[in-house]
Amino acid sequence: MIRVYIIDDNRIVREIIASQLQEDPRFEVVGSSTATDAMKEVLNVRPDIITLDVEMPDISGIEFLQWLMPKFPIPVIMLSSFTEVGAKVTLDSLQAGALDFVQKADGSEEDFLRMVLELKNKIRACAKTNVSDILTRNRKSVQKKTENTGSASKIKIIAIGASTGGTQALEYIVRNLPGELPPILIVQHMPEYFTSMFAERLDSVSNLKIIEAEEGQSISKGNVYIARGDHHMELGDPPSYKIKVHKKEKVTGHRPSVDVLFNSLARSPLASHCAAFLLTGMGKDGAKGLKALSEKGALTFGQDESTSVVYGMPREAFEIGAVKEQISLDSIPDKISELCFNTANSYN
After folding, report:
1. pTM for this predicted structure
2. Catalytic residue among 32, 189, 206, 264
């Protein structure tokens, strides 16, 4: 049974969430309060996981996380509004130690049930995560390899897919990569308003140029392209290989979808010159696309269980034979550098 503590400034919201969780035998609500009261109780109650409202009048979600994490680093799921302001605060919360977020209900019964179901799934997925390891990794830098091997790599493009836990994983990766790499295309499951800010944050800590992808964009060396929230991203046809951005139907329940990106690469002449990484996340998005890439000669990697926040997507890929090598998050920057060092300048 997972012991949950609910923090929200609205008493009615707390009571409704608590009643929904208590009806499920997998959960035990061990506390429900404002952030101020939680500061007095949570260290004694010691729950397995906390749900935390992003925006509260007494103490903000970020302030609470900054107080909590040095004392009691446990999994936290944020409840956020999907607005431009809400996006910024939620990304700040993820940077401060929260693992994931759920969109607040819009007031309708249907959307409330959607919120509760998503919250239950993410509580179950994240409850056992070792947050101390993540916080330690966030402060860590790897020793970059600069030795010239004297041999050209066949890798001309890199693709990465991630979901729950991916924001922290991606920041760790790009912060520890050199600037002279082939184009990198990334799908991180995120809604609109979030991805442009996320790209800006990654850009501020990386040697690479990191931007939100746009329709018709040319890919170039040293650049990273983040799929826009609520939009699929594909690699276009040769010889230009320009990025395609569209809002076709969701795939595996997601838009953007990792499978959409990976499958577009598998159809490309660049497939055998691609290195693809499927990172932490719930569900199975990206697994079939990674399999398609593997069958076309791409180098395919799945994040290992021990460093994944949620070993869902990479597990699915491993079980269907899509993963040529399981790899720890700590090893990914060096692996990319090793694969891509001295890559040729032309991608057309």
Report:
1. 0.91
2. 189
